[in-house]
């Protein structure tokens, strides 16, 4: 499994765990397990995070350039500190 798939799967798993935890917490507090606007906002946020993760570890020229720039900044900070 390549790094892109691993990172994206990890992001999906984290989102599923958080959404399940929120649903169980709300069920324990007496709420019905129904989809409300807050739930949909969390779903959209996690899907956006997963999409960004998929793009970040992808092979597009822009993603590679952004990642190289971030790594260069990180290397420069390590040399200073």
Can you walk me through this structure?
Helices cover 81% and strands 0% of the residues. It is built from 3 helices and no strands.
What's the SSE blueprint?
Blueprint: H1 3-28, H2 37-56, H3 61-80
Helix pairs in contact: 1-2
Which structural traits does this protein have?
81 residues, mainly alpha, 3 helices, 0% strand
Give the beta-strand count: 0
Gyration radius, in Å: 18 Å
**Helix-and-strand structural type:** mainly alpha
Q: How many DSSP H or I helices? A: 3
Question: Strand percentage, roughly?
Answer: under 5%
The major beta sheet can be summarized as: none
Helix content: over 70%
Low-confidence stretches: none
Cα(first) to Cα(last) distance is: 35 Å
Helix-strand pattern: HHH
Mean pLDDT: 86
Brief description of this entry?
It is built from three helices and no strands.
